[in-house]
Design a protein that fits this description.
Two copies of one chain form a homodimer.
Chain A: H1 4-11, H2 15-23, E1 31-32, E2 38-39, H3 42-56, H4 61-71, H5 79-111, H6 122-128
Antiparallel strand pairs in A: 1-2
Chain A binds a DNA duplex through helix 2.
Chain lengths: 146, 146
DNA sequence: CTTGAACCTATAGCCGCTAGAGATCCTATC
DNA sequence: GATAGGATCTCTAGCGGCTATAGGTTCAAG
């Protein structure tokens, strides 16, 4: 049996995060020692590793919840997992293209900066006047801007 | 003079967001009409457009605060603005390479999925076992995961 | 037996908004 | 002038995914 500290170390997850996962029901309520401290077995370690890896791949906690429940039913078809992963991939792709546009714009801004005063600073100028932008990097409603 | 609704429309910013910006001091407290409603002039419209464009480029509100105060001192050298923009570019670049790694990993996961049951689903398997990953996409301490 | 690290709970804060309640104001139409 | 309905006002709470702090308890080593 692992204490919460050992579990966190083994899974690469911070202790308060583990407690948070328990709180939101992503991890089951842990067994407790005589002194009321959480104790974990191998199963929870695996579950936590699964969560961590999924987070590293950018999945939202709600998606992870669903993936976890899928992984508990081994004889179901895996189409549902596929759908979630494809959605995530699409999301990552959208993010990448958005960020590429930002990179271009920032690069152009900086390239044209003559390192003079604010009055003729291209950086400040571009920020104040969207018309100076090559792209329409609006993408309103596409989720967080970065 | 513009009402808050017209201002928001003209700048492409939602009304509650404008009030929020005022609350955190990014916009100055607005003039008020006889009936206590906010009224704005051209200067605030420009300021709000500056903010919006900066947000579209992913700058944090604190950076924008600084950029705004720089833009108010036209005869200062623009090196400070340059530093902020370069930092932002570096941040965007880090984000992009992280997302590219995620994309690769997600793509590989999906490519190898045989569309069978969960039990032999590569997606679920990879999520549970980090060793199956080609990359180390950890990047702990590099800010939010996505 | 004492120290100090690790644990416990509970609460508040981070960012950048967004949503809701309930009240007030402004404008257009009858 | 009345009335409807949109736009505005303030205030508070919530989102995601944690992180930090305070103040207390338990545990393991010396």
């Amino acid at each position: 049996m692992l204490t919460i500290g050992k579990l966190g170390e083994a899974a690469g997850v911070k202790v308060p995060t583990i407690r948070y996962y328990e709180q939101i029901g992503l991890l089951p309520a842990a067994e407790r020692s005589a002194g009321n401290q959480r104790l974990y077995g191998r199963d929870t370690l695996n579950r936590l590793r699964f969560i961590r890896h999924s987070r590293e791949l950018g999945f939202a906690l709600d998606d992870i919840r669903e993936l976890l429940s899928l992984s508990d039913t081994p004889d179901q078809p895996c189409a549902a997992a596929d759908v979630i992963a494809r959605r995530q991939l699409a999301y990552v792709n959208r993010r990448i293209s958005r960020l590429n546009a930002l990179r271009e714009e920032l690069t152009r801004m900086l390239d044209q900066c003559s390192a003079g005063t604010i009055a003729n600073c291209h950086v400040i100028e571009v920020l104040g006047n969207h018309d100076l932008c090559a792209h329409d990097h609006d993408m309103a409603g596409e989720g967080p801007l970065i």
